[in-house]
Amino acid sequence: MEYEQPSPNDTRFLFSFYGAQPGTPEYDEVDDEGHYYKRWNLAPGKTMKIVVAVFPGDNKEDLKRTARWAKEIYGQAQDLITVVLPDTFPHYNPPEPPEIPALYAELMDNGDRIDLYWDNRSEFSYDVKTVSTAVMGWQNPNGSQLKPGIDSDPTPYLPDNWPDYFPDEFKPNMNDPEYKWNNNALANPFTAYRLRHDFQGYTIWGRSGSGSQEDWEMVRRWDKIDTPQDFADYTINADSVNLFLDFGGYLGNDTDLPNRSDNPDINHRGWQASPEEYARFYRLNEMYTLVPNGSAFYGWPIYNPDMNWTPAIQAQADQMVADNPMLTDDELDAMQARIFMHPHLQQKPEIFNALYDRKLVPLKTFAFPGGVDALDPTQEQLDTLERERLARRYYKSHIMYPRKGVEYYVAITAYDRGIPSNDLNFLETGRDADANMKVFFPGSLAREKMDDIKVVPNPYIGRSKFDGRYDNDEKGDKSRRLWFINLPNRCTIRIYTLAGDLVQTLHHDGAHQTDIVTISKAATQGMTADGMHAWDLLSRNNQIIAPGVYLFSVENKADNKLKVGKFVIIK
Fold it and tell me: pTM for the complete prediction?
């Protein structure tokens, strides 16, 4: 007997086991292998795994819906026969945010700007949890449980009224007597395919001087402009109160994606080329099919449309490996992949190195597994891969005036719509080192004018704003920092006492990784600007220096020019 409270105001727990009871007909039923598959078969002294799910609901239908969702997240469960065996099924497969964008970032404009470049791989993410398999499919047009008129009813398209855009792979096979109809289906397979492309937008995040998650600040957000087809999909079965599922969720503000080529703001325009050149690339249309790009282009291209796999190109790539045994695997991969780099990136190949996707590079051991002796790819494989590759591009934006001398964290995230029918808010990719977070120490870029070299802070009094605390440094005496700024790209810094004793020698070679010592940190090191170098106020013997006046010299390795100055330490 079912019971539903008139006013839902408590929490109840049901803990139950199931199995046929002695004396019932089911108790003696066996399956094809002779197992009593309806009995409870846990022998005395044996153990089993118990999984507890807590799911809320305001009414009976809510409870049923959340129970189905909990079961789907858990995945395949053991049955009465296998419950006493080791559980080898994968479990807890929740919805995922879009794929994490690849990110390249660099300091520019004398440290007053951080330029960010990221690729659009997130836009091709496909989350099967957005539309549950339980509600996806076709209803049996001849079945007694058919719900006429809803999205999963194939009757309007039969026998051969399919729209031209409807892919054959999503049509039901009416000639297959074993075809699996789903009378619980609410969305047909093609609608589900579109909805499972649930990418919605990007966000730039930044934070200065703190590694705490709560200190991230949103710098800018973009989201795609939803098409009429999107809105139709979000509201399928809207005319049926009991069968409607909301697939809309968080839709943003329709700001559009970044760097459209005809953006009225010249500072945010993307690639400038001819419509004929744009048409050589691909994009996802409203049906989430790859089609020629069209008259507007978002971002900049990553790959060269003139380059595809040939035996000669494969031989060229293989020869690169043979000719460069001293390079690392990553360096060799980047060198081979750059065969397919778009020409406009020749002046900045480091962007390509950071953003290319090896599974799209048409070479053996990249997109084509099996090693260098694998079979040559077919023309169909090459054509499919080319469309996917030429749909990739990158975007560009920036963060202005980051605080200098302390670490600045940046990240690009991608987010989806969420699953409102299951009360799930939008999901966003991470902002930590496991995602694409980059850490910089903004400051002056390298320059050759030696008179500009300075020490900051000068004087150093007690503790500076650049200080923090290393682990196990209780007094903080070994967690101090001052900066030499406006340095040439390659130089040697020497620090002396007034008596002329050498205290420390620092070798500066452009941008480099240096320690993060602030109290709240999410990484151990960050990239400095190439015109600055930190000193921890420790001598070359790792001793804490005394207060006083110190001299320094900076020798430019490019021309041997010398700059001499002094600074003061007050404790």
Answer: 0.88
Alpha-carbon gap, residue 147 to 243, rounded angstroms: 9
Listed in sequence order, the DSSP H helices in 236-328 are 275-278, 311-323
Rounded Cα distance between 210 and 406, Å, is 9
Contact 444, 511 (CB under 8 A): no
Write the pLDDT tens digit of every residue in 166-190: 999 999 998 888 899 998 899 999 9
Give me the residues paired with residue 116 across strands: 105, 397
- Mean pLDDT over all residues of the chain? 91
* Beta bridge partner(s), residue 496: 502, 551
Q: Are strands 562-570 and 460-461 parallel, antiparallel or unpaired?
A: parallel
Q: At what angle do helices 329-337 and 311-323 cross, to 10 degrees?
A: 150
Quote the CA–CA distance of 530 and 510 in Å, as a whole number: 4
Using a 10 angstrom Cβ sphere, with 0-12 exposed, 13-18 middle and 19 or more buried, the burial of residue 30 is: exposed
Cβ of 333: how many Cβ atoms within 10 Å? 20
- In terms of Cβ atoms closer than 10 Å to its own Cβ (0-12, 13-18, 19+), residue 121 is buried
Maximum distance among all Cα pairs of the chain, rounded to whole angstroms: 102
- What percentage of the chain has pLDDT greater than the value 70? 96
As a whole number of angstroms, the distance between CA 276 and CA 293 comes to 10
- pLDDT tens sequence across 115-158: 999 999 999 999 999 998 888 999 999 888 899 999 999 999 99
Which is it for strands 217-223 and 199-208: parallel, antiparallel or unpaired? antiparallel
What distance in Å separates the CA atoms of residue 202 and residue 176, rounded to the nearest whole number? 44
Dihedral over alpha carbons 80, 84, 86, 92 (to 10 degrees): 50
Could you tell me the two tokens for 209? 């001087």
Of residues 31 and 387, the one with the higher pLDDT is 387
SS3 for 244-259 is: CCCCCCCCCCCCECCC
264's CB contacts (< 8 A; 6+ apart) are none
Amino acid at 33: E
Residue 425 CB coordination number (10 Å): 13
Burial 91-116 (b: 16+ CB within 10 A, else e): eeeebbbbbbbbbbbbbeebbbbbeb
Question: What span, in angstroms and rounded, lies between the C-alpha atoms of 143 and 358?
Answer: 48
pLDDT in tens, 6-20: 666 666 666 666 678
The span from the CA of 259 to the CA of 119, in Å, is 12
Residue type, 263: N
Report d(CA 393, CA 283) in Å as an integer. Answer: 10
What single DSSP character describes residue 462? S
Backbone angles phi, psi at 121, to 5 degrees: -60, -25
Give dist(CA 481, CA 466) in Å, integer: 6
